[in-house]
Amino acid sequence: MNHAFTGGSKKRKQGDRIFSFKNFCTPGNPVHFDGTFQENIRVLLDLGDHDGGALNHRWSFQLELHSRPLLNLTLYAIEETVDSSSQFRQCHHCKYVGWGHHMICRKRYHFVLPAWRTGARMANGGGDNEGGGGGGEVGTGNYYSCNVINKASGSDKLQSQHQLMHAVVHSNGFGHLLSVNGIAGGSEVVSGHQILDLWNRLCSALNLRKVSLTDTARRGAMSLRLIYGVGYGKTWFGNWGYRYGRGSYGVTHRMYRDSMEALQSLPLCLLVPHFGSLRHEIPAIIAKYQTIACNSILTLGQLFHFMLELKRHLPPETMTAMNFQGIASQPACRWSSKRVEMAAQVIVDTLKKAGNQWIPRQDVRDTARIYIGDTGLLDFVLKSIGNHVVGTHMVRRLVNPVTKVLEYCLEDISHSISSGGGNAEDHYNQRLPPTSGMFLRSRPQHLTRMQLMRDMFYLYKYILKEHSPTVMTGIFSTIPLAVRVILDTKHLVRDYNGDQLALRKNTITDNRIQVLCTVNFKTEWPIHSYDPILIPANTTVGDLKMIAETYFRETYLGLHSFVAESLVEGGDSDAELVMSIVEATGGSIAVVGSNRIINEEEVIYEGYSGRVVDCPCGAKENDGERMISCDVCEVWQHSRCLDFPNGEEIPSVFLCICCEQNIIDLPPSLLF
């Protein structure tokens, strides 16, 4: 197995490596990972800063986000041990996504990226400071994570509201992305796209098998999975390979796919007169984007696709140059544009002397006052200059979440200016890049991201979400059902290792071969799923039984007394080479054995609860939605499917339809 260190980090001091945020876990950085997840995670942890003393199950990695100004984020890896006394030994996320048949693992690994100033080490040598996160782009309910993280960290700095990212991976290689907080979720230094890129690289490098997430991402008041489903036929997380995992309320993959296709194919030639008779803005909005689009926009899916693509090309409103004449013309400004520009340049020069450090507003003001005696002018410019471009620098401004003090920092953006000439103001004021001409017939005048999002929200609200019976008639009667199906599909899964497992079957790497191994008990209990195990190429059947026995005992809580006895196919002699069996079975091997606590099913499986689910929607398992049980037969059903909305209180006594009918059919003599 090759884990050679390639030098993909810097060294500040002994035991304190600085890795690149952008390149962390790219091939060869920081090492070449070439093992199973259990092997790779140990190699990764050896590269981190290990907490000593009582906190010996937490490691940290310093990730350099950018160097000018210098800003590092801290990625924490926390090892959680699961035993029979653990409060949350069963993983509800496994249950909801359909992995309830998996056995409970002995260990879980939490990956936490705290918000900036919670886990960041600043260039000025300041320690870790707390920072707020805000609403998340992924929300799954961290039902056990906070207690585990707080216990491991020794403080409350890593609570969920302070996390840019939190994920948990079981020791069998199945994991869950629990939360992502990008710019929309309160992040001040890194976007959700960058966080997902980091997580995707980490999963690929460590050789994870599958990862799930619960998609509750929103853009303002709009569900992101609905507008992306209409515009792209996939979710936003589909950009990283996440696909349909499991639907709630009995939604199947085919129902999900057909619903997206139904909404995407709605013809605008029928939609405009139908909805436009009541909402006159709808025809105007649609005509606006049809006019500027290079290609014909004929369906609702094409319209949303074009608007989402156009949004990507429109510059953010905050990335604009300092317009001194415009500022001087404001009613609140009593100074000339030249004086405003001079004061802004003094502030920039003051920040340059700070050496890319974050400086409190009062310190900036006091230093600039040496050159600008008018404090009113300084206060006005300091208020206007934040997150604007002056010359070749971006003036960053934010509130320190600990001290609540406004701070400023300077970022050199000269590298962002195109080689064709022009200054930073031209670069940031440019409305659309040259590539936008590929899909634009004409350049939109005075169209901003905010205006585009307002138009999209109007269409979202009055076409997709307003389900008035007078409007939803004919072919448009399918809209409410299709929208509900898409919104009821929020459990997504990325299969990281499906292709890799197929490629690595029967292949030898570093004189080792990968086999897919499972256990088969001498009972009627379900067969365990196949786990990848790397074994030496000259392994015998006897060796394999010992390797499998050790692996399953150390990996799964319920198999601590597992004893491997034989193989289902082949292996008549312990001296027989496993290679010959692999060639005959295609790499899948089942080990027959016994286990002392096999009858205690609730200890073994992630999803076992003893509940019987039989809902009118077709659901047979707990999907994480609110349910109610019959007081007679104790069968569980969705409260929504029984006309009890989620915001409505559940009755204290409830009978399902079957039990209610059975009682009605009873002879009166038995009722009294």
Automatic annotation (TrEMBL):
Keywords per UniProt: Metal-binding, Transcription, Transcription regulation, Zinc, Zinc-finger
Positions of the PTC1-like winged helix-turn-helix domain: 334-412
Annotated ranges, domain PHD finger protein MALE STERILITY 1-like ubiquitin-like: 510-594
Residue ranges of domain PHD-type in the record: 615-659
Keyword Transcription regulation tagged: yes
One GO molecular-function entry: zinc ion binding
Highest taxon of the lineage: Eukaryota
Keyword Zinc-finger: yes
A UniProt-annotated Pfam family: Ubiquitin_At1g33420
PANTHER family: PHD FINGER PROTEIN MALE MEIOCYTE DEATH 1-RELATED, PHD FINGER PROTEIN MALE STERILITY 1
Protein name: PHD finger protein MALE STERILITY 1
The species this protein was found in: Zostera marina (Eelgrass)
Lineage start: Eukaryota, Viridiplantae, Streptophyta, Embryophyta, Tracheophyta
